[in-house]
Amino acid sequence: MKKFSVLFTASAVVIGSYLFLKYFFSFYLQLPIPASLMKTYMFLIVAGTLLALTADDDSARKLTAPFHSLLFDPSLRRSRNAVFFVLPFLGAFITYQSRPKTEAPVEFRTVHPAPPSSMTAFGKTYNLITLRNPYRELEINDPDNFRKAVEEGKAVYYRNCLFCHGDKLRGKGIFFDAFHNPHPANFQAVGTIAQFQESYLFWRISTGGPGLPKEAAPWLSPMPVWKNHLSEDKIWKVILFLYDYTGHRPREVGGNE
Amino acid sequence: MKPTIAFIIFLLALPYSSGAEPSSTQQPQKGKPIYEKLCSGCHGVTGRGDGPAADRLRPRPRNFARGQYKFTYTKFGKLPQDKTLFRWISEGLPGSSMPPWKDVLTEEERWDLVAYIKTFSRKFARAKKKGRVPKPIVIGTAPPSSAEDIREGKELFLQNCAKCHGKEGRGAGPSAPTLKDSQGDRIWPRNLTKGWLYRGGGSPEDIYRTVATGITGTPMPEFMDSLSPEKIWRIVAYVESIRQKKRPPINDVLVSKHMQGDLPSNPCDPAWQSVPSSYIPLAAQVIEGERWFKTTIESVEVRSVYNGAEVAIHVEWADKTQSPLTAPPDKFPQNGLDALAVQLPVKMPLDAEKPYFLGGSSAKPVILWKWTNGGRPEVFLGKGILKMEPLDREHQTLRVAAVYKAGLWKTVFIRSLERPAKNDITIEAGKYLPIAFSAWDGNNGEKDAQRAVSIWYSLLLKPPVKADIYLWPLFVGLLIAVGEMALAIKVKKEKEK
Q: Does B488 sit within 8 Å of A84, measured CB to CB?
């Protein structure tokens, strides 16, 4: 058993990395790695593992030992025949599997592009670097009116955003299936509103999908251009609601990166 | 070690604990803040089904003040059991805006909510005072059903249900366009073929319950007094036989098959049955212009074939009425036109950049093939959802045929692969062509921007299969075999040494 251990380690490292790349990214982070990139990564990992394990003669010999004994060890004759029999079919099968298939072209899309430094809406120009939510200060100065503003934001959300972003603010509204690419943002997840300043949301909500820069594929996003339907005031209030419901805090203006 | 294992088993068992019996500590006052945070947006703070979202939802959110609940195990119009309310809060009502809450709320919180929503109607307190408890019907479990039962079930279905649900069960019976619920809102009979959208759940026992007790507050009557349990079970068996249980999978590529000879231009041509279909879910156009929230067309199903000269796209969708109606019911005077549009870019995209999915833009327009019931097919250059310019008719090679039958529209769009005019698209095989769909239900008052829409999909005219997809694997297999042979010879020689 001992002589198999180096080969075993090598396979474990390669398979482990594969599973990690595949499942951690697609299920946990919801960022599946495109097949072509996956191939490159796996090539690097296999090459790296081989290099590391064959650094000195001794371990190189250990790595090849199982193959050597498969070929030469008389007691392994049966396994040898089995392997020899299966390999050509395996090769043929893999070749057949890797024929060009009808997968849609991969679309690279930046989910959170950098915002512009300024934007225009409601007949005004906003400096997005210094822009603040005018209602935020009420949170400390006037909690009653702050609650009122949050409630008004809630009504805006339920009348307008619910259908896509959903009851639980997880992006699973009734149109989740129909708008699955890109799907509506999940505000509960750590990767969305929790990492932005409120001015970022003001920009995204006011200008919607079509307001995105090219790298974010503005032609795909069904996110409406809310400056066409809502007042400036209502947009600020719905932003209050998103943070209030999820319990996330907006990033402070000028706060640390 | 052992306590840990016991604890793990306990944790694993938690989600399976029944929760079907009310906890003894139900507290309405504890349900109140939960209700106000999670439920009031639709059901309203006072429970009247008038939250800010209410008038944009169909069906409307339940009005708790009326004490009328649609899906219950009690007789039509009677108050539900607590555990029924608990179930709908936990599991949600599929196909409606009511989501399941069991992933967010603990069992106790859900029981507190049950107690709280009951306070909105005095009926519950009154019943309690009089010592009346809701009496559930007896359902039992579904008996095994034979082909004979299903056939009998169909007979019973045609006699009792087809007037509203239609002979094919798509909810397109003659009475369908005239129905209202107890609040005066228009209501449609369920399309029973789309089994994943049954509001009250889709198990045979659920279907039995709905048939037996009806749907309170709607024209769906109870049958428990007029039909024996055996007969109801036969109807259930028939409904089970026509219902597709799961939503079809969504595939972003629509494959068009190559074929020799003429393309099937009749939408009912049996040749279409052997072409695989793609399910394309649609959403209400809640994005631009005059927005629209209450669509009735939930999806379209698309098939495609092509030959050396033309491409055919078969689009099929469920619509409970053919509009314009010959005689619109006076209760609901809506009498628009059913229509469908296929949207393509003007050029094969050279890079990933596509026109805006919702009708294109002036900078990057789209081509629209629009069919309207009763009208001629038209081709437009779309520069925005409402900015559509007709392209000249003379050069158009688009042909459309449409047939309406038993709650289903079937249409075929056929066009030359070669572009018919300069500012139109040439369709090439082997390339991914962006394609999107819009559908209008005239009888639902839909027109212009008010419609159901899809996002971009890709249409791929798949080049005919060439022999080399089999030759290469054969070659690789042989190569490996030869290599092995050489290796074996070498090993043998070395051993002999």
A: yes
